[in-house]
Amino acid sequence: MAQTRVNGFTEDLNGFGRIIHIATATVSTNMTQEKMDALIQAITVQNYTITGIEGFSVDATTAIYIAYEGGPAIADDATNAFGVTGCAWAGVTSFSG
């Protein structure tokens, strides 16, 4: 029986350089452009950089994934996250730098 070899890097790796965080934003009603703009502005005002957004469309009712970097993970907030009415924020994962 032949031996299987893996010649790759087998430890955790973050090729981004800085710590990247992934979180979800959901609203109790539909996500509007105004709410999304307020959410993104509130995050960037805290010196974070938004590196990706997935799942947003006007009137979205499902979770919107937001990737950001620039500091420690933003704490979960189940109600009115960042001052956005009905918005819940929940961390999903982080990639260490």
Task: Tell me what the structure shows.
The protein is an alpha+beta fold. The chain is built from 1 helix and 4 strands. A 4-stranded antiparallel sheet has the order 2-3-1-4, covered by helices on one side. The protein is globular, with a radius of gyration of 17 Å. The N and C termini lie far apart (40 Å).
Strand content: 25-35%
Q: Enumerate the spans where pLDDT stays under 50 for 5 or more consecutive residues.
A: none
Give the biggest sheet.
4 strands, antiparallel
The radius of gyration computed from the alpha-carbon positions, rounded to a whole number of angstroms, is 17 Å
Mean pLDDT: 85
**SSE ordering:** EHEEE
CATH class: Alpha Beta
Describe what is shown at a glance.
With 97 residues, the protein is α+β, with helices and mostly antiparallel strands. Helix content is 13%, strand content 30%.
Q: What's the arrangement of secondary structure elements?
A:
Blueprint: E1 20-27, H1 33-45, E2 49-54, E3 64-69, E4 87-95
Antiparallel strand pairs: 1-3, 1-4, 2-3
List keywords for this structure.
about 100 residues, about 30% strand, 1 helix, about 15% helix
